[in-house]
Amino acid sequence: MTARIPRTAARVAVLAPDGSVLLLRYDNPEVGIHWAMPGGGLEPGESPREGACREVREETGWTDVEPGPLLCTWEHDFTRGTVPVRQHEHIYVARAPRRPPAGDVSAAHAADGIECARWWTPAELAAADEAMWPPNLADLLEGLRAHGPQDPAPDLGYVPNRVPGPAARD
């Protein structure tokens, strides 16, 4: 068992008026190809909400997205660079127009291993066979659409990553 360094992060489920969510595609050596919302590790002294705002700006170029309610929290393992981490994430919800990232975000994407950005409709997300972070993202967003934000937001606890097979690496 590899010792994992604790890391706190924040992400934002950016939802368009049609219910689509913006996801970023990563290819991580340990967990393979997966999709996640804009976000990442917190800087020293930064709150999860502050980190979520900063990460959205860095990864999308958008300066008008303000995180709203907390969708959920969860923990998972992966290797960031060469460091194995157990990441505790706060995932917020924000509303924004469906649009591409703005400006030059290529340096932030290269640094974080982001390959592309894509809007996923609720139907596409529900039918996806690709790995998502968190794995039950489609259900969480459907619950949000049907019932609004939960107070308190669910804590999913530790969720193991889907182990990539040969098809997941293509």
Description of the structure:
It is a single chain. This protein has 170 residues and is an alpha/beta fold. It has a single domain (5-147), classed as Nucleoside Triphosphate Pyrophosphohydrolase. The protein is built from 4 helices and 9 strands; from the N terminus they run ββββαββαβαβαβ. The protein has helices at residues 48-60, 106-112, 122-127, 137-147, and strands at residues 5-15, 21-28, 32-36, 39-41, 70-80, 83-95, 114-120, 131-132, 155-158. The strands form 2 sheets. A 5-stranded mixed β-sheet has the order 4-1-6-5-9, with helices on both faces. It has a 4-stranded mixed β-sheet with strand order 7-2-3-8. Strand 5 (70-80) and strand 6 (83-95) form a beta hairpin. It is globular. It starts with a strand and ends in a 12-residue tail after the last strand. Residues 144-170 are annotated as: Disordered. It comes from Actinacidiphila rubida. Residues 6-145 form the Nudix hydrolase domain.
Characteristic terms for this protein:
single chain; 170 residues; alpha/beta; Nucleoside Triphosphate Pyrophosphohydrolase; five-stranded mixed beta sheet; four-stranded mixed beta sheet; 38% strand; globular
Summarize the structure.
It contains four helices and nine strands. With 170 residues, the chain is an alpha/beta fold.
